[in-house]
Amino acid sequence: MTNPFDAPDAAYRVLANAEHQHSLWPDGLPVPDGWSPVFGPDTRHACVAHVDTHWSDMRPPSIRTAP
């Protein structure tokens, strides 16, 4: 059995949580509580490109906006 998170030719989604953290998620698996789809389904490459473009600051907003 192969790991669905490592399948290079599978369809993926990009998920985000309330802290704007992103995760690459295999399409077809249930979305975990606290996460929402923000992109896809698409190729792994397209999803990684979306994450690279939209999650450039890995700090959660609660840390970025702290005084």
Note down, in words, how this protein is organized.
By secondary structure, the protein is α+β, with helices and mostly antiparallel strands. Helix content is 22%, strand content 31%. The protein contains two helices and three strands. The protein has a three-stranded antiparallel beta sheet with strand order 2-1-3, with helices on one face. A hairpin with a 4-residue loop joins strand 1 and strand 2.
Q: Which residues form runs of ≥5 with pLDDT under 50?
A: none
- Give the N-terminus to C-terminus distance in angstroms: 48 Å
Cross-sheet strand order for the largest sheet? 2-1-3
Report the principal-axis shape. Answer: elongated
Task: Summarize this structure briefly.
By secondary structure, the chain is an alpha+beta fold.
List keywords for this structure.
alpha+beta; elongated
Q: Any chance you could write out the topology, listing elements then pairs?
A:
Layout (H helix, E strand, L loop, with lengths): L10 E7 L4 E5 L8 E9 H11 L6 H4 L3
Antiparallel strand pairs: 1-2, 1-3
